[in-house]
Design brief:
The protein is built from 8 helices and 13 strands. It has helices spanning 3-16, 26-36, 127-146, 154-178, 226-232, 282-285, 290-299, 303-316; strands at 64-73, 83-86, 108-110, 115-122, 186-187, 189-195, 198-204, 208-213, 216-219, 266-270, 276-280, 323-333, 339-340.
Length: 341
Amino acid sequence: MSAQTVLMSWFRTRVEKDDPEVGATSRFFRWVRRFLTGGKTAKAEPETEEFATLSSFTLLPGQLKLKVGVVSVRGNYRDHNEDNYYVPGRRSVRHDRGQDSSSNSPTLTLEPPNLFIVADGMGGQAAGEQASLMAVELIPRAIARRLLPDESDVGRIKEAIRDAVAEVNQEILGSSGAVSEFSNMGTTVVLAQFLNDRVFVAGIGDSRAYRLREGRLEQLTKDHSLADALLDAGTITAAELPTHKFKNVLYLYLGSKDARSGPEDVRVLDVRPGDRLLMASDGLTGVVPDSDLAKVLGTIDDPQQASRILVDMALANDSKDNVTCLIIHAVAQINDSTAAV
């Protein structure tokens, strides 16, 4: 893709935002009612385990577990947190909650067949919070509807993930055109779906996933910013990328028409004991160098503590955005009471 094509696509997207998308569903209006009432309902708000997690899948039964930690904060400069996350058994960030999320929560231990998401919302007024909330609540349901309990075909799993994300993209587009408070809203999304002996990783926007294996840190997702597209086109150099004026301008995100087909790429990786996966918004990865990410991931055995340390490093480095860090350790289960990385 040439630099000119990228820029024209971006400007065209901004113009087309004036044309409301059709087909806003009744589900969306239930979202609006809950949002406008501050999330209050007749029943207590459910925990995130209400969403399907495909628990019938097995990955080395009895031999592998996932230890999970997550921290999400407003940061140094923002009045509210537009980031969000999905971790089974943890409450997501709600826009009626003022405190930082999961900072003092314990590490979770989960079975491998589970889904994890980080989303970074954007847009005026309350739009960013709404878009990221829709992503973390609707994507798990949409994936679960598309995957049979005994599904093992890699192609069908990848297709289910793409179609689920595309469906939620359409929901966000419809919401953006239906209610003025949500106009032009959008969100990044990065997800990791653990199934069988694999993990499926996909991203849209500039929230990232990394894997640390045997001391080597690998970025698993691609940033969809105009600056990164210019780098791919050879218009700018790698040295210019971090400070380029278009580094934080996205040409692909949930809530954009260009994301109608879902993620461009769904990576499929094997899972081994000792693997450590990091998922984060750009309030962390755009501020803390990869070398520091690798050091903390490799030396801190508690993922909740590691998440807290990395968030604190981002704040100390003067991150100007919300910061969300989700860390997953794959550990070998020796018996019911002990586990070894």
